[in-house]
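Module 6 notes. Inverse folding takes a fixed backbone as the condition and produces residue identities as the prediction. Think of it as a translation problem where the source language is geometry and the target language is the twenty amino acids. Below is one complete input and output pair. Work through it position by position during the lab.
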């Protein structure tokens, strides 16, 4: 059971996007946010960009040629492939929607109209990509007036495109994804990410991990949050949790899950996961279970060393 007592919420916005706040809170389908022609242009633009980037990534992954790898911070890398794909995607979006704001991983935000924000991860799973581990993705989402309206996650190696459109469901390669099913917890396969940038969180993370692990069938750490969420939407995983993520890791995946009837919140049961980067997702019962078990992490995040 989730304890009902009031919890102190971290008051900082860890992802620092006051200027382009993105929440997932307004009701209504895509048409409440975009004209039909605008939605169609967004869809064709995003698909073109994601397939182009995906083809480039696939070619580079398979050829195993030399890679220019730069360290952005501790345990955090970027390659020339991330940058090339980012340019390619942003160029496409800019051309179709010169007034929209572009928020993407490897560049400063391009602030234009604050009402329309594209959120782009040109290569999710860069560490996997560098090591030749085949779990990587490209993720693009569009938020309008702070609400996630459209989202795409492409697995370029398996050629799977996950698409979500607010109020219209989600699909994989054009086939609609079924609403999430409730299955017994002991059958659940979950996904998570390790707090590799915040190793001071290892203790509470492992405490929560152990408690979750003891109750479920299995847990995977595949190294691409965008794919973890897309797989949760597709029913391959029954739930996902991770701390310290960025909007581009989770925006499209969160919409995918919402569109198949799943629950997505931050660690305090609010919709501020894009702002603080701490996310819990899954079918309603799995989400409830995870919210109970992540208590050690929640406490640590509220403490003086919380990230
Ligand atoms: C990373 C992946 C990984 C998650 C990291 C992210 P990147 O994205 O999504 O699964 O654990 O926190 O930063 O840096 O490879 O785009
Ligand atoms: Ca990422
Ligand atoms: Ca990335």
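Target side of the pair, the amino acids:
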């Amino acid at each position: 059971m989730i304890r009902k007592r009031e919890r102190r919420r971290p008051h900082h916005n860890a992802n620092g996007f006051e200027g382009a706040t993105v929440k997932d809170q307004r009701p209504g389908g895509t048409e409440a946010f975009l004209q039909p022609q605008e939605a169609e242009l967004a869809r064709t633009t995003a698909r073109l960009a994601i397939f182009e980037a995906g083809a480039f990534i696939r070619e580079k992954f398979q050829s195993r040629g030399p890679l220019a790898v730069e360290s952005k911070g501790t345990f955090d890398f970027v390659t020339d492939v991330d940058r090339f794909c980012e340019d390619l995607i942003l160029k496409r979006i800019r051309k179709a929607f010169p007034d929209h704001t572009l928020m993407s991983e490897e560049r400063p935000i391009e602030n234009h109209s604050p009402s329309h924000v594209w959120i782009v991860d040109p290569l999710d799973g860069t560490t996997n990509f560098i090591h030749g581990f085949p779990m990587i993705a490209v993720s693009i989402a569009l938020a309008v007036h702070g609400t996630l309206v459209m989202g795409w996650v492409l697995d370029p190696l398996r050629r799977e495109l996950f698409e979500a459109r607010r109020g219209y469901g989600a699909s994989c390669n054009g086939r609609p994804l079924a609403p999430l099913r409730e299955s017994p917890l002991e059958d659940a396969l979950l996904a998570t990410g390790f707090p590799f940038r915040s190793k001071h969180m290892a203790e509470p993370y492992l405490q929560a991990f152990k408690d979750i692990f003891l109750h479920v069938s299995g847990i995977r750490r595949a190294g691409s949050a965008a794919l973890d969420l897309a797989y949760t939407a597709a029913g391959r995983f029954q739930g996902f949790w991770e701390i310290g993520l960025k909007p581009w890791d989770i925006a499209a995946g969160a919409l995918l899950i919402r569109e198949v009837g799943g629950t997505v919140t931050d660690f305090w049961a609010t919709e501020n996961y894009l702002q603080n980067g701490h996310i819990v997702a899954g079918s309603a019962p799995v989400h409830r279970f995870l919210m109970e078990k992540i208590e050690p992490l929640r406490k640590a995040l509220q403490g003086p060393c919380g990230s």
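Reference fact for the lab report: The chain has two domains: 30-176, 179-302.
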